[in-house]
């Protein structure tokens, strides 16, 4: 099978979970919707292109390997926004701040610093996407890419690679870090962990995964339903600890 792998690293990343109220906490790893959203942005697809996003969601399996978990950082965040009024539209942030009815919004937001991940995508049996086209988009993205929030730009090129393997574990084992990635991983202390955590769609066949005897299931709300309305559905994810899955030589 063919697998598309790429690196996700940012000095600061926002891996947000369900955002309700003033507390905006984050997960320890990117969600499926975040990774597919980044892939779609690289292709130049707008949020309003519902068919393109629905096809991407239906066509791909997903896995994420934690190469460095990073460290949590909590930010007490303040922002000014004008009151919502029917028919009033602001084209820029400057126009918003020029309004005479600004409100101050307070929130607590969680970030992760120096977290690094390897994302892995491959097509389902009925997949209708081309991995080579996706890889080319990740290599030359149409939109500016970031990890969670616009204020969290990527710290490394994605370095997309397509490999052939019989299992997910084998595909991840073939992923080779380039010189710049090795330098960053060394600086942030990646590889000092006793094990590597890999999370993937729970509906993947056991034969494809490899050894998952110590796996556990987690429920996450990160399956894309409608990006325009910001609607997501629950998804079952399997998490397993596997040692020595990154090949940096």
Could you give a short description of this structure?
This protein is an alpha+beta fold and 249 residues long. It has helices at 32-43, 50-59, 93-97, 131-139, 168-174, 179-187, 206-209, and strands at residues 2-13, 23-24, 60-68, 71-82, 102-123, 161-164, 196-201, 216-226, 231-242. The chain has one domain (2-72, 113-242): Alpha-Beta Plaits (2-Layer Sandwich), CATH 3.30.70.2660.
Question: Would you write up a description of this structure?
Answer:
This protein is α+β, with helices and mostly antiparallel strands. The chain has a single domain (2-72, 113-242), classed as Alpha-Beta Plaits. It has seven helices and nine strands, in the order E-E-H-H-E-E-H-E-H-E-H-H-E-H-E-E. The protein has helices spanning 32-43, 50-59, 93-97, 131-139, 168-174, 179-187, 206-209, and strands spanning 2-13, 23-24, 60-68, 71-82, 102-123, 161-164, 196-201, 216-226, 231-242. Strands 1, 2, 3, 4, 5, 6, 7, 8 and 9 form a nine-stranded mixed beta sheet that branches. Helix 1 packs across helix 2. The longest helix is centred in the N-terminal third of the chain and has 12 residues, at 32-43. The chain is globular, with a radius of gyration of 19 Å. The protein starts with a strand and ends in a 7-residue tail after the last strand.
Number of helices: 7
| Multimeric status of the protein | single chain
Question: What is the average per-residue confidence, as pLDDT, rounded to a whole number?
Answer: 87
Question: Biggest β-sheet: count, sense, barrel?
Answer: 9 strands, mixed
Order of helices and strands: EEHHEEHEHEHHEHEE
Find the structural class using helix and strand composition.
alpha+beta
The coarse overall form would be globular
The CATH class name reads Alpha Beta
User: What is the level-2 CATH architecture name?
Assistant: 2-Layer Sandwich
CATH topology-level name: Alpha-Beta Plaits
Number of domains: 1
Question: Hey, roughly how much beta strand do the residues contain?
Answer: 35-45%
Distance between the termini: 23 Å
Helix coverage percent: 10-25%
Radius of gyration of CA atoms, rounded to a whole number: 19 Å
Give start-end ranges of low-pLDDT stretches.
Answer: 244-249
């Amino acid at each position: 099978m063919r697998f598309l792998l790429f690196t996700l690293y940012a000095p600061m990343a926002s891996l947000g979970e369900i955002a309700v109220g003033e507390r905006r906490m984050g997960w320890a790893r990117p969600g499926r919707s975040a990774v597919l959203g980044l892939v779609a942005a690289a292709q130049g697809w707008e949020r309003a292109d519902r068919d393109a996003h629905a096809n991407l969601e239906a066509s791909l399996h997903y896995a994420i390997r934690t190469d460095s978990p990073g460290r949590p950082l909590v930010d007490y965040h303040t922002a000014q926004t004008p009151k919502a009024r029917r028919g009033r539209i602001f084209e820029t942030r400057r126009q918003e701040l020029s309004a005479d009815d600004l409100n101050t919004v307070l929130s607590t937001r969680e970030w992760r610093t120096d977290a690094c991940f390897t994302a892995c995508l491959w097509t389902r049996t009925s997949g209708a996407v081309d991995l080579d086209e996706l890889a080319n988009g990740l290599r030359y993205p149409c939109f500016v890419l970031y990890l969670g929030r616009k204020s969290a730009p990527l710290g490394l090129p994605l370095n997309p690679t397509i490999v052939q393997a019989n299992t997910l574990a084998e595909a991840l084992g073939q992923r080779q870090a380039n010189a710049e990635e090795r330098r960053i991983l060394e600086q942030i202390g990646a590889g000092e962990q006793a094990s590597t955590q890999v999370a993937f769609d729970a509906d993947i066949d056991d034969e494809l995964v490899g050894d998952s005897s110590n796996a556990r299931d987690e429920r996450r709300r990160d399956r894309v339903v409608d990006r325009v309305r910001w609607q997501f559905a629950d998804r079952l994810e399997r998490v397993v600890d596997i040692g020595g899955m990154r090949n940096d030589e």
